[in-house]
Design a protein that fits this description.
Elements (H helix, E strand, L loop, with lengths): L5 E9 L8 H23 L4 H13 L20 E7 L5 E7 L5 H11 L4 E3 H11 L12 H13 L17 E6 L5 E7 L20 E3 L4 E7 L1 H6 L2 H12 L3 H15 L4 E7 L4 E5 L3 E8 L4 E4 L2
Parallel strand pairs: 3-4
Antiparallel strand pairs: 1-5, 1-11, 2-3, 2-6, 5-6, 7-8, 8-9, 9-10, 11-12
Aspartic acid binds next to strand 8.
Length: 309
Amino acid sequence: MNNPISIAIHGGAGTILRSSMSPEKEAAYNAALSLALDAGYSALEKGLSALDAVEIAVCSLEDSPLFNAGRGAVFTHEGTHEMDASIMEGANRMGGAVTTIHGIKNPVKLARLVMEQTEHVFLAGEGAMQFAKEQGIALEPDAYFHDELRYQQWQESLKSDVVQLDHSPLKENKFGTVGAVALDQFGNLAAATSTGGMTNKKFGRVGDSPMLGAGNYANNKTCAVSCTGSGEFFIRAVVAYDVSCLMEYKGYTLAQACREVVQNRLMEINGDGGLIAVDAQGNVCLEFNTDGMYRGMKKSTGESEIAIY
Ligand code: ASP
């Protein structure tokens, strides 16, 4: 088949400055992004679905300690790791999501099981954990999720009682949530997003990442979107669905819709972050209103990119 295929991934947006990045660290991020992008793209090339491709790419990012998802999830106020994830496909707009789960190696896989093995869309906390155990999903001990840098961030945040965004000096904003969006050769779109949320979060705080329509959305008529940024603003602006709506109801192109939402509507309420999106023709948009966003994209036209700033 010669239909177009496209994939895009992100590993979080924020105050990511070249001046505070060492060449080694930059190389490590680029390598982790390339690994995830290639894994997702070759799945599409082999004829797997967009849903498979986004799950594969997000699992690869969840397995890296560099990003705030899965293995690299940040510490909560209590010193635990509480993770959120969601997945959605654009043909029937089926979706699955989990929140405040712990000890799960790949939260995105659990989100997909919610979508495919239950009549529900969103499972939370201990109920989601019970479902995970029934499904025999891979668990990891606390030590797997321990990262010294994130432990130090948590200690710093505890002193000031600040709820802190990922891998950032105090009061700067960096987010390490991961996500992927894809178009497969059958014309189907899918999106997946996974996160550890915010360092030192408490009271069962949940961000936009597991909320369909806010941090993650897919609809074959329009686009697939995965977001990263200050989750509270993304929830209030219903960001992912808003991009789709501008295309569906106002006839915007993917690029126009992404720009309007990220550069205007989010900025109006001081929301910082970004998103990745792909449309049904395979166009890709990587839009952010922060200094940087870990990102990558690859298309069957031959275009590909890995970038940070
Ligand atoms: N959006 C995520 C949240 O608020 C954070 C991130 O993008 O890193 O939980």
